[in-house]
Design a protein that fits this description.
With 505 residues, the protein is of the alpha/beta class. It is built from twelve helices and 17 strands. Keywords: Oxidoreductase.
Length: 505
Amino acid sequence: MAETFTSATDGPDDDAPFRSRLTFDLDVDICIVGAGLAGLTVALEAARLGASVAVLEGRYVGWNASGHQLGTVMPGYGLPIGELIERVGIEDARELWALSKEGADYVRAAANEEAMPGIALTEGALEVSNVDAGDTLISRLQVLSEDFETEVEGWQIDRVRDQLGTARYFHGIYYPKAFQIDGRKYIQGLAEQAKRAGARIFEDTPVVSIDPSGIRKRIVTPSARLRASHIVLAGNIHLGAPLRRLSETLLPVWRYGAVTEPLGERLGEVIRFRGSVSDSDGVDHFRIVGGDRLMWASPETTWDARPRRFGSAIQRRIATVFPRIGKVQIADVFGGAVGLTVHGMPQIGQLRKGLWVASGFGRQGLNTSAMAGQLIARSILWGDERWRLFSPFELVWAGGTTGRVAGHLIGMWGRGSSAAAGALARYREGARARERIREARLAEANRQAGTGTRPSPRRPPPGAPRPPGGPRPVRPQLPEPVEMQDPAPVALASQEREKIRDGSM
């Protein structure tokens, strides 16, 4: 089934139900600020558990990054697994990882065709390396499968390149239980499920101020006031003036993507893998959608810009990675802002009694926002204490304008170093291939030399006198030089190898 895509500059989906602005005072158990993936998951789960819930959204459901992403769902966090272990220890790292797997299971259970028609779920995700990192691959596979009980497969270079027709990628890690969905359908489906469960969603209702003191917290909007026992801040970087100090703990990053025009059979001839693909450096993320279109996310900025500006950049990037596809036409470009934390983990937990945060999901994945929503709802209503696993990842100021400039420069350096490392890896691979060819030519030349005709040893002419003192001693005969059919390959290979040993190549 084909997916639908909407530009980030568009308004609400035409088929999305209208959710009115809040124009009257309201008293609820839980007030959620932000109707993104995390906020709607909190609303859905809390309403299912019997709480009265109101969701306040300044614009409309799914207007930002939550409604404009590639829809990949797999376990894990933005923080590399080795660094996670170093930060919290192996036992807590296992529990955190188990929570991320629960989040993926939650999305799979919610995103089915019966509950969300047109969700277009496809299986499998592949993470590929830009460099030849076989040893690192083996070590990571062992950690994931043995220590974190995650089903993974290691793919060798030949298999990766068989599925992805490009020489830019080397090894890969395949997650067979990962999957991808239509992100727009998913967030609208979440909103509908939350509404059916009893949650009330109010669009075009920005929050003017919040007073978190006391048992009943107070929230003020332009046209109404609310009182709630619990407030959940799920507005990411868009919390605005009422909670500027919290939003400034996130580095805003705008991620842009595009969908190509139909590419026909040529796409399947080059890219055979039907799941999502991401590189180990986080530069590119892509998958096939709608049968013969390519959805590709690549550029990032720390400043807001019109998504259409990046269409040509994505077009060039596709041609660079997959030159066999040729030039593609871009049908749509989309984008959205995410919040990155300094430590690379999401912000999940209780800031003070009755005031909760679910934010910082940039580069985390759909599974993490789903897990956070479920965990906070259960923490409020059941007393689930597992949110404390995220306590080591405290709120850290992201640096303001200076941090955004530094983030932009670091991003540029990261993309540049990734490109340089990939180019060096491909050069080394080519050098090894050329060396194997030279070795093969040398072996063939030696084989041909070994099958040549050796000259017979010289014998004295008949009647020649023998040396005095008995029989003439037999001298060992050394083989004379043998003429090879083609001595050039031997000389060339010898010269090339001497240059390599001397470091001149």
